[in-house]
Amino acid sequence: YLMTLKQRMNTWKWFTLVEMLIVIVIIGILVAALVPRFSGAQSKARDIARKSNLAQISTALAVYANDNGIYPQGNGWCVPIGSELTNYLTTVPRDPQWNRITEPCNQPGVYAYVPLRRGGVDNAGMVVMTSVENENQANFMWDNSVTPGSDAETIQQKICQGKCPASGGKPYYVIIQ
User: Does residue 110 sit in helix, strand or coil?
Assistant: First the structure.
């Protein structure tokens, strides 16, 4: 019952080239089907981080307004979050994609706010915003209606919960105070 090495090699079955190609094609199809699912998960995770960052900024702005009687004025509209909140935040949050241009301010990696009117008083309200990658993470469709001095209640009425109309503009997540 002892076989020589040559006899053993003759009894082994080897994969043919066609069988190997079929296996490679099947693996390629599986990879092609799974990659988009993973990339979608990454963009959802970034959107969740953006929402969390806006919540931190919103809280800091509320404390600022409580201490000073009004929200920070900034130097015009669409003010990037920065030095005015250093007493209220240990670090100012930045977008998870540091080089991403955050509309409508067109500045890389920063979040922004727009001072609003509330009850006829300037800087008595605030909207903090960022564009999101997934429409189902948005609660506002940007239509250029948010400008300095816009009425906070009017902007609040445009908040959509769940599905925002895709034809309404670019998907945003906003927090209005």
Answer: coil
pLDDT tens profile 87-109: 888 887 888 887 777 665 677 77
Q: Which residues contact 134 (CB under 8 A, 6 or more apart)?
A: 40, 43, 44, 47, 171
d(CA 117, CA 149): 5
Select the highest-mean-pLDDT range: 25-29, 101-105, 124-128, 154-158. 25-29
174: closest CA among 134, 136, 126, 133? 126
| pTM for the full predicted model | 0.70
3-state secondary structure at position 32 = helix
- Which DSSP string do the residues of 112-161 spell out, in sequence order? EEEEEEETTEEEEEEEEEEE-SSGGG-SEEE-S---TT-BHHHHHHT--S
Helix (H, G, I), strand (E, B) or coil at 57: helix
